[in-house]
Amino acid sequence: MNAPQVLQEALRALSTNRLRTSLTMLGVIIGVSAVVIMMGVGRGAQALVNQSISSMGSNLLVVFPGSQTSGGVRFGAGAAQTLTLSDAAAARSISGVIRVAPIVMRSFQLGYGNTNWSAMVTGVTAEYFPTRSWEPEEGDLFSEADLRSNARIAVIGQTTARQLFGDEDPIGKTMRVRNLPFTVIGVLARKGQSLDGRDQDDAVFIPLTTARQQLIRSTFPGSINLLFVQVASAEQMLTAEAELTDLLRARHRIAPGQENDFTVRNLTAIAQTAAVAAGAMAILLGSIAGVSLLVGGIGIMNIMLVSVTERTREIGIRMAIGARQRDILRQFLIEAITICLAGGAVGVALGISGAWLIASLSGLLVEISVSSIALAFGFSAAIGIFFGWYPAAKASRLRPVEALRIE
Amino acid sequence: MPQSLIRLIDIHKQYETAGAPPVPVLHGVSLEIASGEFVCLMGQSGSGKSTLMNILGCLDSPTRGEYVLAGQQVSGLAPDALAVIRNRQLGFVFQGFNLLKRMSAIDNVALPMIYAGEGRAQALQRAQEKLRLTGLADLAQRLPNQLSGGQQQRVAIARALVMNPSVLLADEPTGNLDTATSEEIMGLIQRLNRDQSITVVLVTHEPDIARFGQRLIRLKDGRVIFDGPIAQGLGERVVAA
């Protein structure tokens, strides 16, 4: 008996008891769609974290200026202007450090023609962009020469470009920051959300020198808002973090036992924790869904056993006219697999639409990959074989004379 | 003397049930059936005729003894080897017709060929041929429940013949049919035996049905008590009664 004939037989048998077949299938449908949805949600969360991690730049330490106590009142982190350009220069001497990017920033009103928009304006050095592994999509980034000449030029993010320039090409246009004209020389590639959910593409970058002298004048000479320190490898992160802390304590003359007036954050460690958590969640969701698929499989075994009992006489007749054990085995196995694959197909369709619904209702990132669909399908075929085997084997081992005797 | 198609040598059969002594059913049955014979198997219920039929049909295996079918040693073969013998050498006709109710007549007839690995087109062609032989060519597409009892039995006979077997085994083929239809079916079997030289072994308890055959084997308590021409065997029964 060849494959199409076996399949035709299976469909004929399954269609004689439609209600039972569809109820059996329902177990698989629920299981498979649960797997597809759960894996989609889990992978979406993982993808979001990975995207945020890669958008941050690799192996970064971030130094915030620390809290300040004034007359018993404690201000939050960043309140004190304790971090300076010379701290940044000193950080270069730490072993393993490959880039140092000091930053000053403040929010300003921007203008172009009749349009205005408010965004964070950040003064950076040329090293900032490679530190964050940020490439221009159009135009250029600024050079050391631009920094030396205090050029009034700007590199802007995608959101800012859209809000301020609309459909126009911003390159070469002059925008206003507060009331100073800046020429846009580049638009950065899209970076998306940061780990804390901010839109990283709503940003204006100008040379640090220009910012310090013309826009963000500080009462403390040389003070900066933030310092990015990039380390050569992940293995060197912990020692670099410790050395940087020691260096800054020494430079700020903090006595032993006294609190730091700055904070060093290891972004890689935070990101890794988030990635591990997201991975664990994906596994958890997947296994919950897997359990429901398992329950569906047991339902199939149940029904197939009933079906074998009911069709004992049919099996006897088939054996009498020459069906071998493997013919009977194959017949019942194909029936089980057909239920599973049909249920799997419906389940995948339902799962995809369910995932889409969840994504649009909750705003979660849901990622359905071809591999998760293939996995769900493969898994349902495997369930069919696994749970169909026992009833099919039982059918094939019936003795013909006994099978024929059953009414 | 034609060469014997079926040879049974000292066949014993007993049924084993857990926790009870074994129940003997056949006590050393030996017989030979030649190619082209029409043999009727008679006996009261419990005489072992059904068990003998099941052994002849390779549906059951003897506890002891030898069974040679068309020169091949059959006793002791594995289940799948027996399935192949049932498929190629034997054709079954049952009292309850035993057609698969979801399939059309022609699909039922073609099924043994499908199990033999033939292509569907060839199987259907041969099935149609056999349905014509049993006089049912026009109803080939009907489902079994759309056919009368006699018609269903004709489909079953066509199915039994589709692999051109050596032996047609009929177990009370007219048991569920009225007298007129029984006569028709027996006429068909007789014609097949006469014109196509198909060997027939038929179990019945009705003398009127047995009269269509040539040779009678009568069983009692698991032993052959008569083996001879039909007329003589039936006559003896009448005398005994």
Please give a structural write-up.
The complex is a heterodimer of chains A (407) and B (241). Chain A is α+β, with helices and mostly antiparallel strands and 407 residues long. Chain A has two domains: 3-52 and 273-405, no CATH class; 97-231, no CATH class. In chain A, 55% of the residues lie in helices and 18% in strands. Chain A is built from 13 helices and twelve strands. Chain A has helices spanning 3-16, 18-56, 85-91, 128-131, 144-148, 158-165, 208-215, 237-251, 267-310, 312-320, 325-362, 370-396, 400-405, and strands spanning 60-65, 69-70, 73-74, 97-112, 115-124, 136-139, 153-156, 174-177, 180-188, 203-207, 226-231, 262-266. Chain A has a six-stranded mixed beta barrel with strand order 4-5-10-7-9-8. In chain A, strands 2-3 form a two-stranded antiparallel sheet. In chain A, β4 (97-112) and β5 (115-124) form a beta hairpin. In chain A, α2 packs antiparallel against α12, α9 crosses α11 (325-362) and α11 (325-362) packs antiparallel against α12 (370-396). The longest helix of chain A has 44 residues, at 267-310. The model of chain A has no long low-confidence stretch (mean pLDDT 86). Chain B is an alpha/beta fold and 241 residues long. Chain B has a single domain, classed as Rossmann fold. Chain B contains eight helices and ten strands. Chain B is globular, with a radius of gyration of 18 Å. The mean pLDDT of chain B is 91. The A-B interface holds A 1, 5, 12-13, 16, 313-314, 317-327, 399-401, 404 and B 54, 57, 59-60, 79-80, 83-84, 86-88, 92, 94, 98-100, 102-103, 111-112, 114-117, 120, 159, 163.
Give me the secondary-structure topology.
The complex is a heterodimer of chains A (407) and B (241).
Chain A: H1 3-16, H2 18-56, E1 60-65, E2 69-70, E3 73-74, H3 85-91, E4 97-112, E5 115-124, H4 128-131, E6 136-139, H5 144-148, E7 153-156, H6 158-165, E8 174-177, E9 180-188, E10 203-207, H7 208-215, E11 226-231, H8 237-251, E12 262-266, H9 267-310, H10 312-320, H11 325-362, H12 370-396, H13 400-405
Helix pairs in contact in A: 1-11, 2-9, 2-11, 2-12, 9-11, 9-12, 11-12
Chain B: E1 4-15, E2 23-34, E3 38-42, H1 49-56, E4 64-69, E5 72-73, H2 79-89, E6 90-93, H3 105-115, H4 120-133, H5 149-161, E7 167-171, H6 179-195, E8 199-203, H7 207-210, E9 215-220, E10 223-229, H8 230-240
Parallel strand pairs in B: 3-8, 3-9, 6-7, 7-8
Antiparallel strand pairs in B: 1-2, 1-4, 4-5, 9-10
Helix pairs in contact in B: 3-4, 3-5, 4-5, 5-6
